[in-house]
């Protein structure tokens, strides 16, 4: 039987996709409204999804509203990316038990679980791709990450509206999914255009026996994606990165942003690509057993910069500069790609509304002015 690569499914029949995933043994995870925000949670039925809800995001501001529509994926995203599904906030690595003659250890690899994530956005797929590069490529793979990552079936949703904080179009990571998904959906009126992006996705699509998508619907979906990209009011100029940020190391703008930054680490916690972590030992009350665990950390904390009796980033200025320069400059040298995917979460969830695109624009503008002023001037004509 030929593999299906594209089809259409009406909103009223969307449950068929969920039923097919459940029949294959997947735990279904989708966006749900909890305590005024949309978060990932286990779902049982279509009605668990945020039908009719829309999010509004600005620097330091997030709110939801119920529109009364039947739109399933009107919410773009909440504070959570896909990162926690593979790189968990707390990961037990080793169990240590004291014995009469010393101690014994055993690894605590997570059990494999099939998880279908419904509603991933293009920027988050790009973020997960960067996480894959960090944890799965090279000589040393992370077995904890690999085990969790291997069980994921990802259903992306192409964005047809942009938030005030989105700038994925300028980062070439959205608003439509390009790769890294098993299935990708585009919600067009009361229909869902479904595209397969992997062998597993194609198999599931074939099992659903959907009607083929018309050329008109396909063009309409593409037009919605283009309009979404054009509507984004923020952008980040990548043309002079990474060098321009290195040249801005002593720029006074760092002092300006440091005076506003709280070093709360919100930006790094919601970022799809940040991977800083620490390890800690947690003994039980008997002191006979201990758990060696990995926890998310942030370069904004004082402890993170403490090395061999000295803090190498003692001020907020040092930490913010480190974060931005690594994310947008040295990350490129290290991994061959930017560490920013343009999701805008760091802007929304910053308590004081610091805008990454605004800060970088100010740094690059000043750097360009200095570069221009340093060029030799032509002699005036005689």
Written account of the structure:
It contains 13 helices and 15 strands. The protein is α+β, with helices and mostly antiparallel strands and 382 residues long. The chain folds into 2 domains: 6-231, no CATH class; 243-371, no CATH class. Strand 12 (277-283) and strand 13 form a beta hairpin. Helix 9 crosses helix 11. Mean pLDDT is 93; it is low at 378-382.
Taking pLDDT < 50 over at least 5 consecutive residues as the criterion, the unreliable ranges are 378-382
Order of helices and strands: EHEEEEHEEEHHEHEEHHHHHEEEEHHH
Number of domains: 2
Arithmetic mean pLDDT:
93
Quick one: overall form? globular
Q: What does this entry show, briefly?
A:
The protein contains 13 helices and 15 strands. 33% of the residues lie in helices and 24% in strands. It folds into two domains: 6-231, no CATH class; 243-371, no CATH class.
């Amino acid at each position: 039987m030929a593999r299906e690569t594209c089809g259409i499914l009406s909103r009223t029949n969307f449950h068929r996709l969920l039923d097919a995933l459940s029949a294959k043994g997947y735990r279904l995870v989708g966006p749900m409204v909890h305590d005024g925000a949309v978060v990932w949670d286990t779902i049982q039925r279509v009605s668990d999804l945020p039908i009719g809800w829309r999010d509004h995001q600005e620097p330091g501001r997030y709110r939801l509203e119920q529109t009364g529509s039947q739109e399933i994926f009107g919410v773009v995203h909440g504070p959570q990316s896909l990162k926690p599904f593979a790189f968990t906030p707390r990961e037990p690595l080793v169990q240590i038990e004291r014995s009469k003659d010393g101690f014994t250890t055993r690894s605590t690899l997570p059990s494999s679980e099939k998880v279908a994530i419904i509603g991933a956005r293009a920027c988050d797929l790009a973020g997960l791709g960067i996480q894959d590069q960090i944890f799965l490529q090279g000589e040393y793979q992370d077995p904890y990450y690999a085990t969790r990552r291997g069980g994921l079936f990802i259903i992306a949703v192409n964005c047809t509206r942009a938030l005030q904080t989105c700038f994925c179009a300028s980062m070439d990571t959205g608003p439509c999914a390009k790769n890294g998904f098993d299935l990708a959906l585009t919600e067009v009126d009361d229909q869902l255009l479904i595209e397969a992006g992997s062998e597993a996705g194609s198999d599931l699509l074939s099992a659903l026996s959907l009607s083929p998508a018309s050329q008109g619907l396909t063009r309409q979906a593409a037009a919605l994606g283009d309009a979404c990209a054009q509507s984004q009011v923020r952008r980040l100029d990548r043309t002079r990165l990474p060098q321009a940020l290195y040249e801005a190391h002593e720029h006074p703008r760092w002092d300006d942003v440091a005076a506003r930054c709280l070093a709360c680490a919100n930006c790094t916690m919601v970022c799809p690509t940040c991977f800083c972590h620490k390890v800690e030992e947690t003994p039980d009350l008997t002191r006979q057993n201990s758990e060696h665990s990995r926890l998310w950390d942030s370069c904004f904390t004082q402890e993170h910069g403490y090395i061999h009796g000295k803090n190498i980033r003692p001020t907020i200025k040092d930490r913010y500069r480190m974060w931005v320069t690594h994310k947008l400059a040295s990350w490129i040298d290290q991994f061959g790609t930017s560490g920013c995917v343009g999701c805008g979460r760091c802007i929304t969830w910053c308590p004081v509304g610091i805008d990454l695109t605004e800060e970088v624009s100010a740094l690059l503008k000043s750097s360009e002015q200095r570069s221009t002023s340093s060029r030799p001037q032509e002699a005036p004509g005689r």
